[in-house]
Amino acid sequence: MKKITIAIDGYSSTGKSTLAKQLAKELEYVYVDTGAMYRAVALFAMENKFIGADSFDKEALIASVPKIQLEFKFNADLGFAEMFLNGENVEKQIRTIEVSNFVSKVAEVSEVRSKLVEQQQEMGKNKAIVMDGRDIGTVVFPDAELKIFMTASAETRAQRRFDELQQKGDNVSYEDVLKNVVERDYIDTHRQDSPLVIADDAIEIDNSYLTREEQFAAVLELINDVVKTV
Hints:
With about 230 residues, the protein is α/β, with parallel strands linked by helices. The protein is about 50% helix and about 20% strand. A hairpin with a 4-residue loop joins strand 5 and strand 6.
């Protein structure tokens, strides 16, 4: 079967990563979670006191960009690659609500985006890759053979995220999670550099009422259709 590039964009907590992992496993493709990369940079900014509830020293973060080393390392026990920041496994730390509160602000910084986009494009130069994020089909891989844009209501996404955090033992309220979802939507769609938009040739999927299995089956059918034509 011919190898293609699959770009998955969409709003936060729409299950982009879950779908991308399913597809990569089924197709034996490389999976890249670009959200984890931005989350790792946000964690770096937090740990170095560059960003806080009422402050954001963008210039300090920009100056430190060359010091940020990101790497995915496959964990055979878990069945997926984990995020390493400067040699440290930060997979658990980057999934907290605290990091979620800052990641969209960090992702607005052009110098950060430039560094990460360059890395992402290098990862996908040989195709056979599934990558999810906010600007994959519009910036990272504008020539991707298949582009998917995922959406769902803010309330549905907040409930999914809340349930996920509860299962992990995080003490959060639904109201705080919903506020975070809405704020991230606004920042992601209004930033000057590479805002979240639907690519002209993307296929939009509203999964508010779809199961993971239904969504997976629908996208696999799309992939089969695309492979036949390339």
